[in-house]
Amino acid sequence: MPTPMTLEGADNLREELQHRKSVLRPEITQAIAEAREHGDLKENAEYHAAREQQGFNEGRIQDIEGKLADAQIIDVAKLPPGEKVIFGVTVTLLDIDSDEETTYKIVGEDEADLKVGKISVMSPIARALIGKSVGDAVTVVTPGGEREYEIDRVEHL
């Protein structure tokens, strides 16, 4: 089943993949070669650390390649602008109780980063918002209880 991903998220993964293959892989290979030259591999901490780093890097490369292969890349800029909340849009919410404004961009699971306002399409907030329009009131069930928001703006950024 394809996993939704923004164009920006796919570009970031491709960039990381390129870096891991063209920069980190040769560096780790060099570190292993240098550690081998020190002799006895059984008690060589540098060798074991480099091999562990190699395993992690190769695992991450496979993980990224798998994610990109399964991704359904959606370029939000090519979608017709509207007032409906869909994957990839930036939504500004107004907390009905406190009049506080919050802005989220709805992205794929691997792109989510709450510190920069990106939430997963699978999060409770995003699931409550998808399909709603500007002006709609939305109730979101959170660990702290139910919160009510009004959708203030929907932007295709």
Please tell me about this protein's structure.
The structure is a single chain. By secondary structure, the chain is α/β, with parallel strands linked by helices. It folds into two domains: 3-72, Orthogonal Bundle (Helix Hairpins), CATH 1.10.287; 76-155, Roll (Chitinase A, domain 3). Helices cover 39% and strands 26% of the residues. α1 (7-36) runs antiparallel to α2 (45-70).
Question: Any chance you could write out the topology, listing elements then pairs?
Answer:
Elements: E1 3-6, H1 7-36, H2 45-70, E2 71-74, E3 90-95, E4 101-107, E5 118-120, H3 124-129, E6 137-142, E7 145-155
Parallel strand pairs: 1-2, 4-5
Antiparallel strand pairs: 3-4, 3-7, 6-7
Helix pairs in contact: 1-2
In short:
By secondary structure, this protein is α/β, with parallel strands linked by helices.
Strand content: 25-35%
Main beta-sheet strand count, sense and barrel state: 5 strands, mixed
Low-confidence runs (pLDDT<50, min 5 residues)?
Answer: none
- Return the domain count: 2
CATH topology of the largest domain: Chitinase A, domain 3
CATH architecture descriptor of the largest domain: Roll
The tally of strands reads 7
